[in-house]
Amino acid sequence: MSEYGRYSGPRFAQLDDDYKIWAVYCRAQLIKGNVLSTVVTDFPASGNDSKGNLVADAWDILNKSALATIQMSVKPVHLHSVTAVSTTKDAWDALKDIFEAPDSARLLQLMHELSNLKKSGDENIIKYTSRAKGLRQELAMLGNQVDENTLVIQNLSGLPSRV
Q: Cα–Cα distances in Å, from 6 out to 9, 30, 69, 74, 99?
């Protein structure tokens, strides 16, 4: 297949394992189509008059266009998540939940590792400190900053009482 995929437009960035990168590309596609507003709102405020119906009809058209953009940008394994909903916001939120759940689990795992960090008997202090810094860096990548003081206190508490 060429760079233009099955249809006439350029190929969309496919949602793979990196949700954050996909979200940037997909958001750009939604901005390009002037339909990004449907991601942040479920439905427009509507009234009982004909003007309210026009607004609702216009929102429905935008929503369908934005939903189609999202549906074209996911791999088949995620297609059910975005076709089982009726609004762009619901599709976006479903994908976000799917891909942030592993981050949350990993975050909890790293916090547990850091809180239970102990220096093993044959490990020197440099390797031990390096291991703690590695945990801190992984936590930072997941959006959880651990300050230097907390890290130092955690390092000291993991040292054996007799060195």
A: 8, 19, 14, 14, 27
Closest among 120, 147, 126 to 136, alpha carbons compared: 147
CA separation for the pair 83, 79 (Å, rounded): 6
CA count, 13 A, side-chain hemisphere, 1? 9
The residue extents of the domains of the chain are 19-89, 102-157
For residue 38, how many other CB atoms are within 10 A of its CB?
Answer: 27
What single-letter amino acid sits at 27? Answer: R
pLDDT digit string (tens) for the chain, length 163 residues: 444 444 444 445 566 667 788 888 888 889 999 999 888 877 765 555 556 688 888 889 999 999 999 988 888 877 888 888 889 999 998 888 877 777 777 778 888 888 888 888 888 888 888 888 888 788 777 776 676 767 677 767 776 766 5
